[in-house]
């Protein structure tokens, strides 16, 4: 079975400046066979992406939220703990 699913963020902590790149990585501590990964944002049922990495090339305010990944080896599926992604700051003049 798949177990020990963990999520890592670059930059660490999941806090990213608006317009900057955010990369999330999913890994498992244990699991045999070919692993597949899916990415979700809490509140959305459809997967955002598949694969061990999820990248936001230019983060926007609406990209903030809790993200998690699921790992499956075809038999069992396990979720990572959610990671809170925070998009801070603005580029250019702020709206008045």
Automatic annotation (TrEMBL):
**One matching Pfam family:** Ig_2
**Where do transmembrane segments lie in this chain?**
none
Q: Where is this region: Disordered?
A: 70-96
- Please name the InterPro entries in this protein's record: Ig-like_dom, Ig-like_dom_sf, Ig-like_fold, Ig_sub, Ig_sub2
Instruction: Domain (Ig-like): give its ranges.
Output: 1-86
Q: List the PROSITE patterns.
A: IG_LIKE
Give residue spans, biased composition: Polar residues: 70-79
Q: Indicate what this protein is called per its UniProt record.
A: FCRL1 protein
UniProt lineage: Eukaryota, Metazoa, Chordata, Craniata, Vertebrata
């Amino acid at each position: 079975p798949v177990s020990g699913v963990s999520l890592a963020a670059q930059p660490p902590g999941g806090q990213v400046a608006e317009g900057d790149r955010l990369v999330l990585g999913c890994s498992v501590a244990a699991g045999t066979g070919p692993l597949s990964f899916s990415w979700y944002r809490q509140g959305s049922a459809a997967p955002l992406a598949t694969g061990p990495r999820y990248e936001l090339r230019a983060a926007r305010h609406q990209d903030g939220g809790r993200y998690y990944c699921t790992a499956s080896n075809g038999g069992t599926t396990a979720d990572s703990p959610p990671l809170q992604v925070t998009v801070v700051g603005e580029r250019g003049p702020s709206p008045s």
